[in-house]
Amino acid sequence: MKIKRNRISDVLSFLLLVLTLNAASGQSKLPNIIYILSDDQAWNDYGFTGHPHIETPNIDKLAADGLTFTRGYVTAPLCSPSLASIITGLYPHQHGITGNDPAFTFDGQRYRSDWMAARSRLYKDYLDEFQKYPTIPMLLKKLGYLSFQSGKWWGGHWSEGGFTHGMTHGDPAKGGRHGDEGLKIGREGMDPIFEFIDEAIDKKNPFFVWYAPFLPHSPHNPPDSLLQKYLPKAPTKPIAAYWAMCEWLDITVGQLLDKVEAEGLAENTLVVFVTDNGWIQDPDKPNIYAPGSKQDPQDMGIRTPIIYKWPKRIKPQMNTVNLSSSIDIVPTTLAAVGLKSEANMEGINVMDEKAVRKRNVIYSLDFSHDMVQVDQPEKSLESRMIITTPWKMIVPDVANQQNKNVLLYNIIKDPMEKNNLASSNPKVVKNLMKTLDAWWDN
């Protein structure tokens, strides 16, 4: 008996509806999802990226077991806009959070209680803009996910980001700015996350974990055993302390992944690893970064390994060729749970091998630390970056006070960006500028 095409379509639609309803009721095999977000770490400060001294065995194993892009980039070299992109799948000029704080004149000391109160009032406008767009916890909630916020979080109370559980209160009167109580995670143990996972298991809900510890972020005050381990290897004590912080992060990553393994959840858990922005430790000043890293458009500010591990669903591969961006994380997550990306998301699903191979350009943006105007992000723009193979171009913009020249690097041969080739490659500059402008103006 022949079945008409429209009847086949009806059957498929019915099956899709059943799957969706089962997912919403928590009865499906939807994957658990964990985002691990390193804080202030250079792309080459891991064992698997070739650092000669820093030991990161747990992240190394994660990289070996997952799809790892060594040519990964974040959307901005600063934590607040970068993290906002990771949770929305949008660039900073789209979601509105381009810096860490609003720019305003204040007669007093920065970060004190009266400054925090004034900041909070002004930041609310930026937060309102940001909250026009769904976050990944909001989108996953449709499928019955429970979600937990821990660590760095600039979006006020954890519930404002769509999380069902969390640590950050966001109250400026209690020091709420970029994580507050959430910043205890990792540094003071992992119990809050473990208790959340236990609750999700008991309730039979799929879960999402945002693990964004204040590691290796300053203050660089690692356990003494780790500091003593690196002091003989490092040229200075500040560098030894930073290296020790990187291993401290790795230890906590191991604790988290061990919990997932112990609960029998590893096979059905998508783990994503990325850092928010880069870091070069000043050799002589503790807790201080050197130029060309954090807050700067160089690769030491925006490049990061990006790892996706999902056993039996994502084939392990150390991808050293193709470009990847942090804006891919949300589209990939949505694809993993059967949801479509939002219309304004420009990232790709990295599980789509054709899409990965087809992509030949990505972008990043560098804005001033303090945001000038909520509805005009271009006023805070310092640089636009376009990355291809083999080129990377940095184009200065209105807020840039340090550099007025276009910078062009063969990023494959010159990963530390020592030789500006703009003057000797005018056609390359022209073509890349055309592509960058078309993207920016779109």
Topology:
Blueprint (H helix, E strand, L loop, with lengths): L4 H20 L7 E7 L18 H9 L1 E7 L5 H10 L3 H4 L5 E2 L10 H18 L5 H6 L4 E6 L13 E2 L24 H13 L3 E6 L11 H7 L6 H26 L6 E7 L23 H4 E7 L7 E3 L4 E2 L3 H8 L16 H6 L3 E6 L2 E2 L9 E7 L3 E6 L10 E4 L15 H16 L1
Parallel strand pairs: 1-6, 1-7, 2-9, 2-10, 3-12, 4-5, 4-6
Antiparallel strand pairs: 2-8, 7-8, 11-13, 13-14, 14-15
Written overview of the protein:
- Helix 8 packs across helix 9 (237-262).
- The model is unreliable at 1-27 (pLDDT under 50).
- This protein folds into 2 domains: 1-30; 31-360, Alkaline Phosphatase, subunit A.
- The chain is α/β, with parallel strands linked by helices and 442 residues long.
- Strands 1, 2, 4, 5, 6, 7, 8, 9 and 10 form a 9-stranded mixed sheet that branches.
- It has helices at residues 5-24, 57-65, 79-88, 92-95, 113-130, 136-141, 191-203, 224-230, 237-262, 299-302, 329-336, 353-358, 426-441, and strands at residues 32-38, 67-73, 101-102, 146-151, 165-166, 207-212, 269-275, 303-309, 317-319, 324-325, 362-367, 370-371, 381-387, 391-396, 407-410.
- A hairpin with a 3-residue loop joins strand 13 (381-387) and strand 14 (391-396).
CATH class of the largest domain: Alpha Beta
Provide the β-strand percentage band. Answer: 15-25%
Query: Could you give the count of β-strands?
Result: 15
What gap, in angstroms, lies between the N and C termini?
Answer: 52 Å
- Count up the domains: 2
Shape: globular
* Fourth-tier CATH superfamily name of the largest domain: Alkaline Phosphatase, subunit A
Question: Mean pLDDT across all residues, rounded?
Answer: 94
Q: Which architecture of the largest domain per CATH?
A: 3-Layer(aba) Sandwich
Helix residue percentage? 25-40%
Number of helices: 13
Cα gyration radius (Å):
22 Å
